[in-house]
Amino acid sequence: MFSALKGQTALVTGGSRGIGRSIALALAEYGVKVAVNYSGNEAAAQETVARIVELGSEGIALKGDVGNSQQADNLVKEVINTWGKIDILVNNAGITRDNLIMRMKEEDFDQVIETNLKGVFNCLKSATRPMMKQRYGRIINISSVIGVIGNAGQLNYSAAKAGIIGMTKSAARELSSRGITVNCIAPGCIDTEMTQQLSDEVRSEYEKGIPLARLGRPEDIAMAVVFLASEGAAYMTGQTLHVDGGMYM
Ligand code: NDP
Fold first, then answer.
1. Choosing a second label site near 78 at 20 to 30 A (CA), which of 30, 66, 89, 204?
2. Which atom of ligand 1 is found nearest the CA of 21?
3. pLDDT at 241
4. Does residue 95 line the site of ligand 1, with CB under 6 A?
5. Hey, how many other C-beta atoms are within 10 angstroms of the C-beta on 103?
6. From the CB of 242, is ligand 1 less than 6 Å away?
7. C-beta atoms surrounding 220 within 10 Å
8. Cα–Cα distance for residue pair 125/99, rounded to 1 Å
9. CB-based contacts of 98: which residues, under 8 Å, 6+ apart?
10. Is the minimum distance from the CB of 142 to ligand 1 under 6 angstroms?
11. Which residues are catalytic?
12. For a pLDDT cut of 90, what percent of the chain falls above it?
């Protein structure tokens, strides 16, 4: 089921740390060549690339802000310049700027929409042409359980993440006849730097609401990505996989 992944190429946005790093490494384990995108933390990106190489695959680090259409386009172009094709796009880059509605600044709303929602559109749009030409592509968008159930203090984030689910369905319908599948993963609360900012109290509150009674690991999400990129998921498109310990069911 996974052997066809060997020699394929992938762009993982926000692949330098957290869930994105885990996705990049999991794909590399199956022989995928991985471009690791990051926005500022070059050292983390280079470390991820070094680990990809240790796993016996090829990797490159690509700096670029996914919210900027020109920079997003350059990411896809770099992958094609390096390896001649792009088979897999994982739209993972994301940020939070949490606050209650009354205190949420316009720029906090705009920044989250620009990175988390427009960033997905920018990369998806840039990857569409080469994928259509080769009549093959796997696009996997990382949403969130918060885009499905909402959360106080995360209006901007939940709007972006819900938007990704809608975008996934429209893109899936538009691109299916060209051999391109578009799916989405909605992680629950995953143990990364993003959630390590939470206080112990908030983390234990979260855990109480998780039927499997623990935070998720980045690897839990990475394995779902490998599945959606594999031959085994050839008959799935427009779907959202909920990898959240049962938070949403
Ligand atoms: P981290 O904060 O640990 O990592 C974020 C990654 O995104 C980094 O690689 C960062 O690069 C990159 N990034 C940030 N902004 C941009 C940008 N404008 N352009 C390109 N890259 C950018 O996040 P997580 O690993 O926790 O989250 C990954 C994804 O999963 C996000 O979309 C998040 O919303 C989603 N998610 C996370 C959950 C969680 O509990 N952690 C739950 C549900 C969904 P750099 O290092 O250079 O800053």
1. 30
2. 9
3. 98
4. yes
5. 9
6. no
7. 21
8. 31
9. 153, 154, 157
10. yes
11. 157
12. 93
Domains (ranges, CATH) in the chain?
3-241 (3.40.50.720)
Report CA(92)–ligand 1 centroid distance (Å): 6
DSSP state of 140: E
Q: Which residue has the tokens 């809608």?
A: 166
Mutate to test the pocket of ligand 1, among 39, 141, 189 (most ligand atoms within 8 A of CB): 39
Half-sphere exposure of 157 (CA within 13 A, CB side): 21
- Cα of 177 vs centre of ligand 1, distance in Å, is 31
Confidence of residue 123 (pLDDT cuts 50, 70, 90): very high
Determine the pLDDT at residue 120. Answer: 99
pLDDT for the residue numbered 207: 87
Question: Whole-model pTM?
Answer: 0.98
Q: Torsion-angle region of residue 142: left (phi > 0), alpha (psi -120 to 50) or beta?
A: beta
Top mutation candidate among 192, 193, 242 for ligand 1, by most atoms within 8 Å of CB:
192
Ligand 1 centroid vs 13 CA: distance in angstroms?
A: 8
Angle formed by the axes of helices 18-29 and 42-54, nearest 10°: 20
Q: What is the pLDDT of residue 237?
A: 98
